[in-house]
Amino acid sequence: MTTIRKLWKENICYKALLLILLLLMLVPYLHQELAPLAKIFLIWGYGYIIYDFVTGRTLWKRRSLFLLLGFCACYAVTIFLNRETAFTTNLKALLYMAMFFILLCGSRRTEQNKETDRGEMLRREITILTRTMLVVTFLLSLVCLMTFLLNLSGQYPLADGSLAYLGMIDGRLWGLYNANTGGALNAISVVTILFALQVQKDTGRAFWKAFYLISLVVHVSCLSLSGSRTALLALLAVLSIAVYLWMPMEHWVKRKRKPGRVRLFLLRVLAAIIIFMAGYAVCALTGALFHTIPRGEVQRITITREYREENAAAETNAQESANGKIDEGMETGAAGSAGDIIAEAPSENTETEVPSGEITSPVRTDGGVLTGRPILWRAGLQTFEKHPLFGVTREKLVPATVPELSNPAWEPDLTAGGVHNGYLTVLICSGITGTACLLAYVVVNVWNFRKAAAAKKQRKPKKDSIPTLRKGAIALLLLFLIMELMEARVLYQINFFLFLFWLIVGYLTAEGEDAYEKNL
Predict the structure, then answer these.
(1) Which of 135, 162, 345, 468 has its CA 20 to 30 A from that of 444?
(2) What is the Cα–Cα distance from 26 to 480, expressed in whole angstroms?
(3) What is the pTM for the complete model shown?
(4) In the chain, which stretches have pLDDT less than 50?
(5) What positions does the domain O-antigen ligase-related occupy (predicted)?
């Protein structure tokens, strides 16, 4: 009972339940069904913040937190200036972001606890959240992999009129969600599992080690089949950097005297290159092996909006009349693009809207190797030049940027994922003022972390799991920062990626600021 009370008091239960909800909401169908539950967590979160403010104010002692709240204040001004466009949606996003900033980046352990208790509580919190995330992502990825093995392919309508896809689409594994979303989720899980295995090597049970290894195989398989280059290259880059920075190369040199710096540098670079090339080869080989598996005929799964009719008899008749057109469209789309699927599968009750993700258009020959992203980036920069001070808000980004496109054929990609660059998205949505607050937050915490690292070098290192956990958090943060070059997920739109990113930032900034203050 004491343990449960501690978990509740430290807000671990809230984080774990919200983590599960946000992961499930990555599935389009579950998103529309579970979205109302997010309001409960909004009320719960602000209730906890108010309670903490009245009692101990442990969430308000991080100095750098006020820079994030300054970003929220600037974005509030932006919302007011652009209140004619989706004012309610932008306001909801602001409330969620402010809540996450306070709960995840403002938390400080109570001062009356002993240092050992604080370290033990931190390990427990990270262990619970890590295992919760990996169990849910494993189940989601396993279902996605089964859609490939069973050769399932289909589409279904959402409440807003758009179409969602499942299974294999255009030679890529979409599974339960967009292929790029699945690839990013797999990459995050792979990095987490590798560092979790390092922690489990000394302190873990055999059950969790076996689970991590099985999960690793499933996630690598899904990542190979998803065809997400951004997730794959970001993962390989992070693993290569981790090998370069943290692999103890001295043990590889069979000489009594310590090797020189140049030799160590060359060994680390060579190891990083080998890891990158080997990882790429493993993913390519895995994808090729899966495609050689005999899977029989494609099982078409098509759900139309007739199922939403109240009259069951009319529902059945409508479905039978629509099946011919839908199946014909799916056969054509199987060899073409996802955009072709929509164009080839119209029915009287099905709107032809573009699903989320990287969807190709029938007439687009100027995309290049980056699939049209430079075109979106140039249009986004032109939008920023017209609204440099406070920006245009996230919900106004698309209507404000569409007129700037050099080729209107890329509008579906802009509508689906914005300008596909997190850093440019901040500039467009929040302008110079909001961007300055975020940059100040980064500079302050990098300075704190640098001072903390310098102080720790002077002390005798302790043999526990905290250094490994810190390295894992840094690796995940680096993975996010690389993926944000091609996507925009960690601000404005409330999802699992935003929550996990700021959870990691909260852990690292808390450690850096605490260590810095101890050595003042």
Answers:
(1) 468
(2) 17
(3) 0.83
(4) 1, 110-116, 305-362, 520
(5) 216-439
